[in-house]
Amino acid sequence: IGGYDSAGQIQSTVYKYDSGTSMWSPVSGGLVANSVTYKLTRHAAVWVGSTIYMFGGIVEKSSSPGVNQLNTDVLIWDTGSDTLSVDTSGPASGWTGRQSLQIATDGSLIYLYGGLATLTPGQITNSLSDLWVYDPSDVSSKWKCRTGEVLNASARTNAGHAYDSTNKILYTVGGSTTYSRYTADVLSIPLAQASDCSGTPGLYVAEASTGTVRRFEGGSRMSDWTWQGSWSPMAPTPWKRPPCFCIWLWDPKWRTGRWC
């Protein structure tokens, strides 16, 4: 789907591969939805059920000929009818257009990690470290959450990746980071943690001896702090450390992470 041709031009073509005959065949029409043609490359795609979902990449739309931009639409290819549609709910608040991102699915949820937030492949300082969850089955709110720093993840783009469906871990191998064009390290990202977006933004305090968390409501007395239960799973680890209290600012909507 899409990509560059031998002349370096972005394509809107779609090809099918027949494993029985080992032959490729073009799909008539290609990437066209609502009379708009999408030329797409450097995107991430994943198969859920009988549908292919495409995220990010560099796109040129026939409605804006000659203009390349980072794609923020979710392009949906129905393999049964060989037709394209676009998720009209729009991107989540804070979602940044990106190319060369990593993608995985557990068969229902789609996980999107990292990528490059620029049209220029060599600008690795624009690499991203956030992780997003997209739920195709949720009509009202498909975009679920992002985690980023809470996973201790490194900004990464152009990485090889594989998904361990048994343990729900996304492995990324190599690629580029914000500090190196090439890296040989391996990241393991526990996707089982990625669906927890609960909690209220605010100023929090934790007792180091017990791990009890309270949220500040305004004022100067302990009664102005609301008990939040134990620290897990909201806080990063290690949590219990001197001095007696740890102070954290937290907001689940921050692009680069929850805690600072």
Structural summary, described in words:
- Helices cover 0% and strands 39% of the residues.
- It has 260 residues and is mainly beta.
- The chain starts with 14 loop residues before the first strand and ends in a 10-residue tail after the last strand.
- The strands form 6 sheets. The protein has a 4-stranded antiparallel β-sheet, with no helix packed on it. A 4-stranded antiparallel β-sheet has the order 5-6-9-10, with no helix packed on it. It has a 4-stranded antiparallel β-sheet with strand order 11-12-13-14, with no helix packed on it.
Biggest sheet descriptor: 4 strands, antiparallel
Unreliable stretches covering 5 or more consecutive residues = 148-152, 194-198, 227-245, 252-260
| Overall pLDDT | 77
Count helical runs.
0
Taken in chain order, the helices and strands follow as EEEEEEEEEEEEEEEEEEEEE
Side-by-side strand order of the widest sheet: 3-4-7-8
Overall shape: globular
SS-derived structural category: mainly beta
What is the β-strand count? 21
Rg, nearest Å: 21 Å
Helix content: under 10%
Cα distance, first to last residue?
40 Å
Report the sheet-strand fraction.
Answer: 35-45%
